[in-house]
Amino acid sequence: MPYEIDETHDPNLESWVESANDPATDFPIQNLPLCCQLDGSFAGVGVRLGDHVVSLADCLVEAENHGFNSKFDSVGLTDPFRAATQFWSLTPGQRMMARRAVVAMLNADSPARDDISANSIEEGQVGPYIHPEPFDDEMLKVGDYTDFYASVFHATNVGSMFRPDNPLLPNYKHVPIAYHGRASTVVPSGTDIVRPIGQQAPTEDGGSPGFGPSKLFDYELEVGVVVGRGNELGTHIPIEEAEDHILGLCLLNDWSARDLQKWEYQPLGPFLAKNFATTVSPYIVTMEALAPFRTPAYERPAGDPRPLPYLTSDANTAHGGVDITLEVHIFSKQMRSKGMDPVRISKGTFKDMYWTIAQMLTHHSVNGCAMQPGDLLGSGTVSGKARDSRGCLLELTWDGDSFSDPPVLVPGTQRTPIRLPTGEERKFLADGDEVILKGYCEREGFRRIGFGECRGIVRPARQI
Amino acid sequence: MPYEIDETHDPNLESWVESANDPATDFPIQNLPLCCQLDGSFAGVGVRLGDHVVSLADCLVEAENHGFNSKFDSVGLTDPFRAATQFWSLTPGQRMMARRAVVAMLNADSPARDDISANSIEEGQVGPYIHPEPFDDEMLKVGDYTDFYASVFHATNVGSMFRPDNPLLPNYKHVPIAYHGRASTVVPSGTDIVRPIGQQAPTEDGGSPGFGPSKLFDYELEVGVVVGRGNELGTHIPIEEAEDHILGLCLLNDWSARDLQKWEYQPLGPFLAKNFATTVSPYIVTMEALAPFRTPAYERPAGDPRPLPYLTSDANTAHGGVDITLEVHIFSKQMRSKGMDPVRISKGTFKDMYWTIAQMLTHHSVNGCAMQPGDLLGSGTVSGKARDSRGCLLELTWDGDSFSDPPVLVPGTQRTPIRLPTGEERKFLADGDEVILKGYCEREGFRRIGFGECRGIVRPARQI
User: DSSP letter string over A86-126?
Assistant: First the structure.
C-alpha cells in the first residue's frame, strides 16, 4: 500500500485553529479532507479543518516561506487556479509531502502561527488563507461516474427478491460488476431531490405500463471513490498500482426509483431509475488520512473462487479494505416541524465489501478504458450481514411478516415498515424526508476522523 | 418540427469554394456540418465545405459587415473562443439565421466573394477564415454519453440468439431502452482501437472464467445524436420541444467485445465490453441541413402498443424519422497491402428505427435528468429487416448453415462468415481490420448531403 502511518496521524497533534480540536469534529488536523470552490472569493482546492477551510495553495506557499522546501511550485500546487487539477494527478509521495507541509503549518506548535494570525483581516477569519465558511455546497466537476455492486450481502438480498432460487448470478464472485451512471446529475450534499417520474410495470402481463411519480423511492448508502491520476486509453492500471491512482473517498447516495428500475432494467441495466440525481458529500477524505484504518480485504468464505490474478496482489489481500462506519439517518418533515432530531435507521461498515477499491479501479481499466482525474466510482450499496446494516430501504423493509399491503415491489415478498419517532411509518421515502448519510473511522490509539454528511430532501414530483 | 425547408436547401445553389461543387462531395453548400478545433491555428466551431473548413465566427462577422444584421454578436457567435459552447445552446430560429448568413457569404453569387478572395494570404487557403485542412481528428468534448437500443430489428435479432422463444422483452415497445456509456473514451474517427482484454464466460458451469484478448470483437453501426440546448435538473424536455434541443447527427461506432459482454452484462448491463472506445465522425450534420430528409416515424405493425402520451406528438408521428442511408465497409490489412479498396458489407437506413430521436431525448429527461450541451446519444445498432442491412457482425454472420466451428457466441446457433475479396473470412473482426462507416441523405429534387466517414483500425491486444 502506498500510504504509511506517520507523524501526521499522531493522535496528540492539535491545531491552532481551535475548532479542529473539538472532540466531536469530523475534521481534526489528522483528517484534512479536500474540497473545492470553483468561483466566489476562493478558487481552488481547500482543506477542511474544524469549522474552517484552508486554501491548499496558499498553505503550501506559506510552508515554502518557512523553509519547507518541497518543490510544490514545480508541480503547480502553489497556484490556486491550477491546484484543483494538479493535485488530483500527484504521486502518493508528493501527496504525503503536501500533507506533512500542511500539518507543519497548521499544528499547534507551528512556526507560522504568529505570522498567519497577525495577517487576519476579517472577523471570522483566522488567517488570510483560512475561510470561515465550509464549502458544503461545492464539488469538483465529475468526469465520468461509474457505479459498482461490490457488497455481496446487498447483491444477495436484492437477488433473493427477484430470483429466490438463484440470488447471486454466476459472474458475481469473478467480476466486480458495475455500470456507467450519469455524471451531469452528480450533485453536492444539500441539493433538493425532486421525486422522479417515469414508467412503471403493467399490473398484468401484456397490459399498458403505468406512468407517474415513483411510488417506491429509495436511497442507497454508498462510498464514492475519487480517481486521482488517470491512465492512457489502451493501457490499464495494474492492481499493484491501483491505490496510487485513488485520491480519496467520500459518501454517496445513489437515489433509486425501484418501480422505474424494475420495469426498465432489462436487458441493459438501470437508467432513468438512477440518473435523475446522485448526491455526494463535499469532502474527499484522502487515502493518506485513511492509512490507520486499512484492513485486510474481505475474507471470502470457503468454497468461493479466488479472484483472477489481475485482481490479486499481496498488498490488496493484506490491506485492501477500509474500516469506515457508515450510518443512515432519516429526518421527516413532521420530525423537523416538531423540533426532533434525525433518527438513525442503519449502521454498517465498508470493510466487508466483497471487492476492494483497488480491485474496482483495476477491473475498470483492464480493457484499456481511460480513467481521468476526478472520475467518480460508487461502491454500490454498502450492506452487511446484520439486518440493521442494510444500506437501502428496499433491503431494510424487506420480507417482514407484519405487513403485506401494497406497495410490494416483488410479488410474494412482504415489507415491514420502519417506524419513525413521530409514529410515521416508511416502506419507501415520503416527500419531505431528508436522508442523511454519515461516515467515520475509529481505531484505538488514533484520532477519530469523519466524512461529514451527505444530505438531501425529497421534494414532490413536478406536474407533467 | 422546428426546421423548415428554405432557400438554403435549393439544389441549384453552388459555392465559390470550388471543392463544394464536386458532385461526389459529402459537403456541398446545402450541408454545412459543424466541427471544432480546440487548439492549433484555429479555435472554435468550423463549418465543413467541400475540402475546406470555414470558421463560423469569422464568417458571421463577415456577414454582419455585409449588412446581414442578425445580432450574432449579442449571442456570442462572433467570438471564436465562445462560439463552440454558445452555438450549441441557440434556438432553432437563431441557428436557421446563422445558416442563412453562412450560405449568403459562401454561395457562388456572394457579395463577399471578392473581398474574401482578395484577402487570401497563404497558398491553399481560399480566404482568411477558410482553412485548407479538414479537422478530421478533432471533436468537441462529450459531457455524458448514453447509448440507446432503438432498432427493433437489432433488438429482435440479438434477443433471438439469447432467448429464442422470447426475443423481445415486454418493456421494449413501451420504453426507449438505453444505458449510460463512457464519455472519456469517445474518440474521433481515425483513432486506433486496441483490442480489449477481459474476462470471458467459463466453458463449463461453475468453472473459472477465461481471461485474455476478446475473440468475438465487433463493431456496431449507429447514429450519434448531439444535444444542443440542455434542461435544468428536475425539469424535462417535452416531446413537442425535443428537436429544439438537438444540434445534429453524426456517425458512431459502438465497438463491442461480445465475449466480454455475454459474461458481464447481467444484471446491470454492458460495461467493459463497450467502454474501451466509441468512435464518432468529426462532423455534426445539423437538423437544419436534414430538413428535406425527414420522414414519418416508423409505422408500428398492427397490434403493437402506441407509445405513452409523453412520447407522442403529431409532429413526431409525421416527421420524426430521418432518412439516412448507412453503410459499413471493411478494409483488411491484406486488402490494404494488395492495393484493393474497402468492401461494403452492409447497407441500411435510419428511417426504420422503432424510436425517434425526439422520443429518445424526451424519454431521457422525463425523470428530471439534466441534459447538457454536447451530450451524445447513440441510437443503438441500426439494423433493418433485410439480412444485408444488419448493423453488426453479431447479426450479419449469425445462424448460417455452412459453418459451425467455434467461436460460436450462443450455443445452438451457427455463424456464416463474411468473405472478403482477398478470400479472407470474418465472423468477427481480425487485427488490422479497418471499419469504415458512411452515411448520406438523398431525395429527388435535393442535393445529396453526407456525413463523411467514421473509421477505426483494430490493433492487437497489448500484453498483460
Answer: HHHT--HHHHHHHHHHHHHHHBTT-TTHHHHHHT--STT-S
Q: Identity (one letter) of the amino acid at A18?
A: E
Query: Would you call A178 and B368 a contact, using CB atoms and an 8 Å cutoff?
Result: no
Distance in angstroms (rounded) separating the CA atoms of residues A277 and A281: 13
Where does chain B hold its CATH 2.30.30.230 domain(s)? 7-131
Q: What is the ipTM of this complex?
A: 0.93
Cα B397 from chain centroid (whole Å): 23
Q: How far is CA B265 from CA A282, B54, B260, in A?
A: 32, 44, 8
The predicted pLDDT at position A405 comes to 38
B103, pLDDT greater than 80: yes
Task: Quote the longest CA-to-CA distance of chain B.
Answer: 76
- Specify the fold of B145-459: Fumarylacetoacetate hydrolase; domain 2 (3.90.850)
C-alpha cell at B423: 478470400
> CB A268 to CB B177 under 8 A?
yes
- Asked whether the whole model's pTM tops 0.90, one would answer yes
- The phi-psi region of residue A445 (left if phi > 0; otherwise alpha if psi is between -120 and 50; otherwise beta) is left
Q: Do B208 and A305 lie within an 8 Å CB cutoff?
A: yes
Q: Which of the four pLDDT bands, split at 50, 70 and 90, describes residue B58?
A: confident
Q: Is the pLDDT of residue A121 over 50?
A: no
Q: How far apart are CA B105 and CA B68, in angstroms?
A: 10
Percent of chain B with pLDDT over 70: 87
Name the segment(s) of chain A with CATH classification 3.90.850.10. 145-459
Catalytic residues of A: 154
Q: Is A291 helix (H, G, I), strand (E, B) or coil?
A: helix
Lowest-confidence region among A67-71, A319-323, A415-419, B368-372: A67-71
Which residue in A197, A267, A364 is closest to B169 by CB distance? Answer: A267
The single residue listed with the C-alpha cell 429509495 is A218
Strands (E), A153-293: 178-180, 186-188, 193-194, 197-200, 210-213, 217-218, 221-227, 246-253, 256-257, 278-280, 285-286
* DSSP symbols for A411-429: TT--B-PEEPTTS-EESSP
The CATH number of domain A7-131, selected from 2.30.30.230, 3.40.50.2300, 3.90.550.10, 3.30.360.10: 2.30.30.230
Q: Residue range B268-286: average pLDDT? A: 95
Partner residue facing B174 (CB), from A194, A199, A236: A199
Q: Could you read off the pLDDT of A347-405 as tens digits, one per residue?
A: 999 999 999 999 999 999 999 999 998 899 999 999 998 888 999 999 998 853 323 33
Distance from CA of B148 to the nearest CA of A (A): 9
State the smallest CA–CA distance between residue B460 and chain A in angstroms: 11
Q: State the CB neighbour count (10 A cutoff) for residue B250.
A: 27
Has B154 been annotated as catalytic? yes
CB contact (8 A) between residue B462 and residue A234: yes
Taking CA atoms, A7 is separated from A1, A29, A79, A449, in Å, by 17, 11, 27, 16
Residue A163: count of CB within 10 angstroms of its CB: 13
